Amino acid sequence: MDRLTEMEAFIRVVDLGGFTDAARKMGVSKSAVSKHVSALEARLGARLLNRTTRRVSPTEIGLAYYDRASRVVADAVEADAMASSMQSAPRGELRVSAPLSFGVRHMGPAIGAFLNEYPEVSARLSLDDRFVELVAEGFDLAIRIGALPDSSLKAKKLTETRMMLIAAPAYLQRMGRPESIEALAEHDLLHYSNLASGNVWRLRGPSGDERPVRAVGRLTVNNGDALLRATCDGLGVALSPAFICAGALREGQVVEVLPEAAPEPLGVWAVYPSGRFPQPKLRAFIDFLTERFKGAGPDW
Q: Are 237 and 165 in contact (CB under 8 A)?
């Protein structure tokens, strides 16, 4: 007899407390379940079940065997599911959440290229700087930037982006260029309200130590592009990721100040629900993003 079938029959009998319900669950006769369990006991040379006219219960050996056998059967079922999933073509709707500025610059083009490659997939891209609840709101994947909170979600690091202190040349002509972290206290610090650290910038001192600086200025905003616009307009000093401010730096609208004090680069992550084998559309999209962002450096 098939060893896995014997294990499954035994597990069903223990789970359901009898041969009749186990047979119904497996779609076979009660005598077939009994034969599977008897064959298993004979092969092992051990009694796994106590049988009475009223109930069936596992022996001490049976309980120990049940724990291991349950894992073996579960792994076999998941292996079958994985093999089937890997052969399936990606199809269906993919729901993706991303921060607005990153989404416009990178996720929009990425999804367009992905859909051209996988014609049976459609996509719904939601751009929002808040942290969405993936499972509750029905998203397949979200892009997160920065340190990830502890959660049951899985995460794949796609790349990094460098954080930069920036200001407009006109602002620096008017207020002077800060030459130290301490000098930032004399400046208007423009605040991005969705920072995980609140309104505190965690800068690096000369010896590499962390220096917290409270961002106090005339403007607080929850979008990176709006923050960049205000910086270009000379309202103060901002802490901005390179993927937002790189163009303005190239064009001379802003310049970097205190580059040695900038925080460590932020990770750019794809996070998704923790099912062991993602659907083909999700697995294909994660692989696509991994390849697409592989060459991106922290200064992009």
A: yes
Q: pLDDT of 137-195, one tens digit each?
A: 889 999 999 888 777 788 999 999 999 999 999 999 999 999 999 999 999 999 888 77
The residues facing 141 across adjacent strands are 96
The domain over range 92-161+266-292 is classified in CATH as 3.40.190.10: yes
User: In the block, which residue shows the tokens 């990721």?
Assistant: 241
> Cβ distance 68 to 7 under 8 Å?
no
Question: Which pairs count as long-range contacts for 291-299, CB under 8 Å and 24+ apart, including other chains?
Answer: 292/110, 292/113, 293/106, 293/158, 293/159, 293/268, 294/159, 296/158, 296/159, 297/159, 297/160, 298/159, 298/160, 298/161, 298/162, 298/242, 298/265, 299/162, 299/242, 299/246
**What would be the CATH architecture of the domain defined by 3-87?**
Orthogonal Bundle (1.10)
Statement: the pTM of the whole predicted model exceeds 0.70: no
Written as one letter, the residue type at 264 is E
In CATH terms, are 92-161+266-292 and 163-261 the same topology?
A: yes
φ and ψ at residue 236, rounded to 5 degrees? 160, -165
**201 token code pair:** 């910038």
Domain 163-261 class in CATH: alpha beta
Domain boundaries, the chain: 3-87, 92-161+266-292, 163-261
Number of other residues whose CB lies within 10 A of the CB of residue 275: 9
* SS percent in the chain: helix, strand, coil, step 5: 45, 25, 35
Torsion, Cα of 107, 108, 111, 117 (10° steps):
-130
Q: Which of 74, 67, 226, 232 is nearest to 166 (CA)?
A: 232
> DSSP states of 228-244 as a string?
HHHHHTTS-EEEEEHHH
In the numeric block, which tokens belong to residue 259?
């580059």
- pLDDT at residue 25, as a whole number: 86
Cα–Cα distances (Å) from 145 to 140, 157, 193, 236, in that order, read: 17, 10, 14, 24
